[in-house]
From TrEMBL:
Keyword Oxidoreductase (UniProt): yes
Source organism superkingdom: Bacteria
Residue span, Fe-containing alcohol dehydrogenase-like C-terminal domain: 187-357
CDD domains linked to this entry: BDH (cd08187)
Gene3D superfamilies, per the entry: 3.40.50.1970, Dehydroquinate synthase-like - alpha domain
Protein name: Iron-containing alcohol dehydrogenase
Source organism: Acetobacterium tundrae
Pfam entry (one): ADH_Fe_C
Amino acid sequence: MQNFDFYNPTHIIFGKDRLASINENIPVNATVLITYGGGSAKRSGLIDKIKMVLGNRKIYEFGGIEPNPKYETIVKAVEVVKNEQVDFLLAVGGGSVIDGTKFIAAASKFDGDSREILKGGYAPLPVEEVVPFGTVLTLPATGSEMNPTAVISYEHAKYFFSSPLLFPKFSVVDPTITFTLPQKQVANGVVDAFIHVTEQYLTFPVDGRVQDRMAEGILQTLIEIGGTSVSEPENYDARANHVWSATMALNGLIGCGVPQDWSTHFIGHELTAMFGIDHGQTLAIILPSLLAVRREQKRAKLLQYAERVWHIDTGSEDEKIDLAIQKTRGFFESLGVKTHLSEYGIGADKIPAIVEQLKAHGMTAISETGDLTLEISQKILESSI
């Protein structure tokens, strides 16, 4: 097992009817900016319920944070924070709203060009403090409610940054708040959580037995309840397991001491930036093809995945791997998520432009072993048609 540091200070408030807990976790004299997305949180009455819980605190609102949040949108909220002396942020939404709020938290304490924050990656932020923030999760997918990472769109590209300063102080995770989500968003969320796990699990063995078993447990849970979470939106048990799986998939725990890939995400980001395909859909397109192309580099873990997650215990090694990849694709498609570029109207003629974007963004030697070149990315994309 590789050396690791693990730190996660986020207070999770899980279960039904937990909004009242917000009052106990925000200073009584705070000036609060509530951030949210396209308006469903407002129309559903959720924002009004939260404002009631906040009581006499001074409250401002900033709505309109879009999926794949744009720098041009969220930088406007930074001005609100500075002008109104906001000292606590409350993100009400899914990963996009929470990611946008992480940017707002950092940029509001930065006097320079806030675009510098976007290109930070894992480098330290150019600030020593951020505006503290909490979240009310409305979409289970990204795990942003319990991690310190964000992805922001700017000029047809997606940029990520991460810092221990950007852990939410608390996150209210109430599965019932997600009941009104459209089926497509629920399905995308299942896929997103599933592939967050595989990015940390389907690499190469380092004898991280606890991490492997936890990863396999999350994958098996998503397989068991994913379809029900999509088709029965008010099935509390299914949705609660979906929500908690998504949180656990990317809160840092299963990634401790093990190699991580993230190539599926890096390639998928370009599809979202260029063609507007939903993030979860891009992952479902790329992963099966990536596993097929990289089967030799991932052979040992693919066999483990086949046997432990899909319970494939007959056939040759190659037959087991083939069937595990087929079952993975089949699982995504059973949720209603298409897994081929052609099903989104993208043909082979677009692949050179995608590869050029990968090159422009420095994605020339990615994967857990750093040997996934542009040529291999092109092969993966060609296999995804």
